[in-house]
Design brief:
minor pseudopilin epsh fold, three-stranded antiparallel β-sheet, 10 helices, 3 strands, 46% helix, binds manganese (III) ion
Length: 245
């Protein structure tokens, strides 16, 4: 498994789960809270290696965009997060999710860079060169239940991504009552944050900041959003869904 899942002990996970439960994101009775070793996805404070080449997602996302996005933008969020964590005495051996769940108690620097780091780590993980298609299994069932059909989900998600004014993200999340929800957030906010309008555990997200698409798509954000499905790694999304449930 990847390093971000390995570096945290079960004890730490239990602490995180209690934090999320306290924030109303996870019910205290959920399987993970009872010590399910399959655990949930947890994020450290350092940038993890990209699992594919910068050019791997072409032509949907061009190599130059990926390179700048990963080595400049996302890297800056991680290093600014590290400095905010030092300044605000955050224990970086614990998951970043703990901080996000009570982000209203921290600085704007923490909110922007903690969110920025978490969001990009998730974003890289749910894309893949050999991807696309549609979800199956329990995730497909949940999408049908929550949205009526896969196509209706796609429309709702794309609308959230295309209409987010300025910079931000669109999300598919597992809500505290275990339903799927589409939402969007401004800047580097996300549904884990106690300040989010729609709270939940994100399992899929798309970055709609101009830096994510402008070299290739210029002002055509809708074309980028529509093309995103060709690199969506549904098996990773399904893993996150199973863990969040
Ligand atoms: Mn970005």
């Amino acid at each position: 498994m990847n390093s971000r899942r390995e570096f945290l002990s079960t004890t730490t996970k239990a602490g995180l789960v209690m934090g999320l439960a306290g924030a109303g994101i996870l019910p205290s009775s959920c399987a993970v809270a009872k010590g399910n070793p399959s655990g949930i996805f947890l994020t450290g404070f350092a940038q993890t290696p990209l699992l594919y080449d910068f050019s791997a997602l072409e032509p949907v996302i061009d190599a130059k965009t990926m390179e700048i996005h990963y080595t400049k933008h996302a890297s800056a969020y991680a290093s600014n997060l590290a400095s905010a964590a030092t300044e605000e005495k955050v224990d970086t051996s614990k998951p970043l999710e703990n901080v996000l769940a009570s982000i209203s108690k921290y600085s704007t620097k923490m909110r922007n860079n903690g969110g920025g780091h978490y969001n990009h780590e998730l974003f890289w993980s749910i894309m893949s060169p050999k991807a696309g298609g549609e979800p199956d299994g329990k995730l497909a069932e949940a999408i049908n239940t929550s949205f009526g059909s896969y196509d209706l989900f796609v429309t709702q998600f794309e609308t959230a991504a295309k209409t987010r004014f300025g910079s931000g993200w669109a999300w598919l999340s597992v809500s505290p009552d275990k339903k799927l929800a589409v939402s969007s957030t401004p800047n580097q906010d996300n549904p884990l944050m106690d300040v989010a309008e729609v709270k939940g555990i994100p399992i899929l997200g798309i970055d709609v900041w101009e830096h994510a698409y402008y070299l290739n798509y210029q002002n055509r954000r809708p074309d980028y959003v529509t093309a995103f499905w060709k690199v969506t790694n549904w098996s990773k999304v399904a893993e996150r869904f199973a863990a969040a449930m």
